[in-house]
Amino acid sequence: MNHFLDIHKTDAGALQGMLSKAREMKDARNGRPKGTPDDDQPLKGRMVALIFEKPSTRTRVSFDVGVRQMGGETMVLSGNDMQLGHGETIADTARVLSRYVDLIMIRTFDESVLTEMAEYSDVPVINGLTDRTHPCQIMADVMTYEEHRGPIAGKKVVWCGDGNNVCASFLHAAGQFGFDLTFAGPPQFDPEDEFVGYARRKGSKVAIERDAAKAVAGADLVVTDTWVSMHDSQSSKERRHNMLRPYQVNEALMSHAKPDALFMHCLPAHREEEATSAVMDGPHSVIFDEAENRLHAQKAIMRWCLGV
Ligand code: CP
Ligand code: NVA
After folding, report:
1. Which of 83, 101, 203, 277 meets the CB 3.0–4.6 Å disulfide criterion with 47?
2. Candidates 68, 131, 132, 137; catalytic one
3. Which ligand 1 atom is at minimum distance from the Cα of 129?
4. Which H/E stretch holds residue 127?
């Protein structure tokens, strides 16, 4: 049984294997209607629990559709409606759910909820985002980069803005897939040392840069995310915006990147804040391919978890 908790906790060969499976399954669908099942039905007879303690559009829909395409069934559970949100321990919840379902995907706040769920669950657990990481997103992002430009190894990725949970998983991926990452943002928003240290130990060049234009120079991929994440307090919004505004991804900033650079954003975006519509809808942008690839990458992740 394999949990998919974080990119750095998963074998690099297994990650590559998941991405090739994802590409193979994407190709096999070959423009078929989205509601039709795959020829292959590896999840037939399996039940997947999708638990959300925070809102979601992409994660929720892509997991749900992915399971159904592979012949399985889902139940979508809101943390608040479960006893989990009313004091039942994570360990007991994990033990009980393991008696009913074959796989658990959870989006939660504190990373410890995810790790405790995995510790006490008899079935695989997938990280659908925590306050600290978002590994499924970055699997889709690496898949998207490679689909458009070939291997990401050795490329320069620039992260602009808040060194948040998505940035952390990008640093894990830098280490595992062998690319370099420059962070451009104010010091208060630097990614945690733990994530930077991990990527560096794995041989990635990680630079911290305060000047956005300098950071983006020669970039193969420019990435940003919301300035106020779901775990951030709304009262910090104005302060965060004021500090992060110099790192907005706009056409002027993108002009410093390589001419064939890609632009990514995990979405949901706040247009004209962290990125302008001119960039989001412009020639560098692959944001909707990224969103689509959540589906394909996660199907491969689920197959790897279940060994099917
Ligand atoms: N990118 C992402 O995880 O989106 P949702 O919050 O809509 O799931
Ligand atoms: N950093 C964002 C990502 C949303 C998919 C958040 O945690 O809210």
Report:
1. 101
2. 137
3. 3
4. strand 125-127
